# Entry
Amino acid sequence: MPVSPRSRFARALAVVGVTALVGLAPPAFAAPAAADAGTGVVAEAFKKGPVYVDPRAAGQLPKSVADKLAAKIEAADKPVFVAVLPRSSDYPQASLMADLRSLTGISGVYAVRLGELFNAKADHQVMSQSAVDNLRGAVQRSYASDAEAQLNAFVDQAVKQTKGHAPASWQDSGEGGSGGGLMVGGLLAAGAAGGGYALYRRAKKRREAEQRELEALRVVVDEDITAFGEELDRLAFSPSESGATDEMRNDYSHALDAYELAKQQMAAAAKPQDVQPVTATLADGRFALATLAARRNGTPLPERRVPCFFDPRHGPSVEDVNWSPPGGVPRMVPACAEDAARVIQGGQPMTRMVDTGQGAQPYWNAGPAYAPWAGGYFGGAGAVVGGLLAGTLLGSLLSAPSAFAGSGDGVSSGPDLPDGGEFSGADFRASDFAGGFDGGVGSDGGGDFGGDWG
# Structure
């Protein structure tokens, strides 16, 4: 039976890897010298393996236990980092989590046992904020006096929920051993080949995720384009009708051009970010249509405003109204005349609903995939859009400093965020790692961990 190129690659890699690893396998956990301490030391250790124990805290987690914990994380192939540290001025509580993430530079889940205290944080694209918050509280309450049980319980659950893969640097950081140059060369070759295939696989997964998001957006945008076309039909304007002026004809031509351009832009969209110019075009076309309607009716021309917040298909907003999402705080949002009247009278606005894995949801609670869609409608200004959506799932993404990075005024979609286990340096959402430690032995686990978890 013929052997596929992939199978031959896998067998060759296995042979080289086994040969290279004989006599060269490093321990999964290595305790540093007692003089080594500080956040930088922990961060450097995290680049080489998932578990670090400060020598002064070795009594909480013996080396044999730490090795097993590290092996569990590595076997799961997840970017979960665990540190056991003494309560010391070497580890400032208020900034420790953010400092560790900054200096390690790898997106992932970070858990720290600091004396009898415990804290955990994660990049929001790696583990949801509510998931890490709930898991942290659970192990804090149940295992506050037992570091081994606490960390194992946390890891057992974290590796099931963490997105991404183990950092490539864990595979390439081995030191020591008695092997000669051939073994070292074999290991490097195996690492290079394996790393290349891993990068290919991750890139493929990212492209697939982008395509899934794009197809979900395509459904919504196609509905928007169809609705705009129906508005053009209902207007029933004829350039040669009695009373038609050049200004009316220009408005109508502008609206028609926007309709055709939006269809072309959506047909050419190759990634989620390509949706933003489509919705920007639709917003522009709807304003032209509203202007044409005002000219025909002899009413004042509309002010150039962003679309209705509740559903951009309603056209340009006419005023701001005080509104709050369920469970959220009030804020001023732009609304069309009909929705403004509903809100002012205490009713519910006609909200744009979209399909999600959890059923139909308002677009602002449908996740980061809708960021390009919203960014095109509302101008792509991070502070503006993030303020409108403050306290919502989409708003937490749009208000982040990196939400509009790398694409001009555009909105960055989920697939552009670094996957779990990938290096991003200090470019991460600060609120994901904000706050210090609290809730030691005997507490209810509800300590102040700081930061707005949205």
Remarks:
- Residues 1-34, 175-188, 396-415, 439-454 have pLDDT under 50 and may be disordered.
- The chain has 13 helices and eight strands.
- The radius of gyration is 27 Å.
